[in-house]
Amino acid sequence: MRQDPLDRAPGADYRPGGLARAAAGPLGEVLCVELQQDAQEEVQTGTGRYAARRRERNGGSGQGRSGPRLECERPRRRRPGRLGWVSGSATNTQITLDGTRTGFFFRTVPPDSSQSKSVTGYITGTLKLKRVYIIDDQEAYSTGLADEVQAQLQAKGVTVGRDGVSQQQSDFTSLINKIPRNTQLVYLPWQLPPKGKAFGQQMKSQGRAGVKLMGSDGLFDPLFSSLGNNVYDSFFPLNPADKRVAAFKASHKGTELFGAPSYVAAQVVAGAIDRACKNGTATRAEVRAQIKKTSIAASASLLGLKVAFDKHGDMVKKPFGIYHSVKGVFVRVA
């Protein structure tokens, strides 16, 4: 299998089912690395890279709202086989906290709880806003993140309005008309940048250009940042100065970096296998033990921070960055 480590665009050579096994031979049964994208399905159905993001959030499933159940259960089904599972995109907060996958499931992307805290902190601490309107996209990833941000904002005394809209909707006129005129910021934990851009354009056409917009990591895209300097976004840790990022951008003529945490997941797995195989053989238990011991220095990490896991399988350091659109480009501000 050939994989461009950062590329998650249609046509990339992923194996069907969104799962890539480790090296062939005996090690091929040691553990699984979750890449969570079925490019073959994209080619067949024309669903494209933005729809792939929804499948990533839903554990590699294209089944919409049933996805989060799969996100929670697929790693559990691997446990009877004693396989280690490393995810670069599963963000459901509870996956690592319910105890059913401890020692078997690890992730190189921060949980939703980390993203929500970063978003809430910036809205209240830096922007110092008091009136926010949240619109989820009725998918479980979006509603879960929206729930966390809403609860945290309300706990800090912010007045919060709430609504939801289908990912299939393109005309947001009636929805925008429901947003109170004194709203200072609209929070959109959406996954499809074209929809985020359409919403922003329709806000402007209705005289609401002064309202700040903030997206989640699914909207970290030039389509959304191009709306203007009233746009903000949250995104997982990434070191934009890393030579591998520059090489990827130069090769693909784009800025799609949604696969970076999966690149790091592959680093984790490869390192664990190498260490477990020092004596020429490796068991699944040995590889899982080495995954737990992972320690990738910040200088070698695509995420720009040290990669090590806590007792739950989460990264010890898991901050989400906050970005502001400056001249149509997202610039990190927190």
Task: Identify the notable features of this structure and list them briefly.
seven-stranded mixed beta sheet; 334 residues; Rossmann fold; elongated; four-stranded mixed beta sheet; disordered N terminus; 2 domains; alpha/beta; single chain
List the topology elements.
Elements: E1 19-21, E2 31-34, H1 39-45, H2 48-57, H3 67-78, E3 84-87, E4 105-107, H4 112-126, E5 131-136, H5 140-155, E6 159-164, H6 173-177, E7 185-188, H7 193-205, E8 212-215, H8 222-225, E9 231-235, H9 243-252, H10 260-276, H11 284-292, E10 321-326, E11 329-332
Parallel strand pairs: 2-3, 3-4, 5-6, 5-7, 7-8, 8-9
Antiparallel strand pairs: 1-2, 9-10, 10-11
Helix pairs in contact: 4-5, 10-11
Describe the structure.
This protein has 334 residues and is of the alpha/beta class. 35% of the residues lie in helices and 15% in strands. The strands form 2 sheets. Strands 6-5-7-8-9-10-11 form a 7-stranded mixed β-sheet. A 4-stranded mixed β-sheet has the order 1-2-3-4, sandwiched between helices. The protein is elongated and about 70 Å long. The two termini are 38 Å apart.
Strand content: 5-15%
Order of strands across the main sheet: 6-5-7-8-9-10-11
The low-confidence parts are: 1-76
Q: What is the structural class?
A: alpha/beta
User: Terminal Cα separation, in Å?
Assistant: 38 Å
Number of domains: 2
Mean pLDDT, to the nearest integer, reads: 79
Radius of gyration: 20 Å
Using the alpha-carbon principal axes, give the shape. elongated
Helix content: 25-40%
H/E series, N to C?
Answer: EEHHHEEHEHEHEHEHEHHHEE
Characterize the biggest β-sheet.
7 strands, mixed
Helical element count? Answer: 11
Could you tell me the number of beta strands? 11
